[in-house]
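Incident review: delayed structure delivery

Summary: a single-chain prediction request sat in the queue longer than the usual turnaround. Root cause was a stuck worker, restarted by the on-call engineer. No data loss occurred. The affected request and its eventual output are reproduced below so the record is complete for anyone auditing the incident later.

Affected input:
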Amino acid sequence: MTFGLTFEKLLLIGLIAVLIIGPERLPRVAEGFAKTVRRAGEYIRDTKSKMRDEIGPEIDDVDWRKLDPRQYDPRRIIRDALLEDAPKPVSAPAMAALAEPKAAPKVLQEFSRTSPPPFDPEAT
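Output delivered after worker restart:
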């Protein structure tokens, strides 16, 4: 997560900041920047500890790279689904639902001027 920043780019940004800020205000700005970085680090540590408290010790077993949304390329998902050989196992409740007799299909009622559809005046 370097965002494409190399040492040379950081050095150039620092040099431009020194020129813009000036030597008089530079110590105050550097101190404020250091405080901000320190607060951000504390916030991240607090967030991690809260997650560990809420989720529990199994948070260490989570593969965070697997949950990265950048890895989900729709083309790859479709390709993997099409090339998948073995069918997925069916759970017991799903198997029971498949074994149950199916209800007769509903017959669609046709409406006309003589038999209009039901009307509910409170539905609007």
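Verification: Residues 26-56 form one domain.
Action items: add queue-age alerting; document worker restart procedure.
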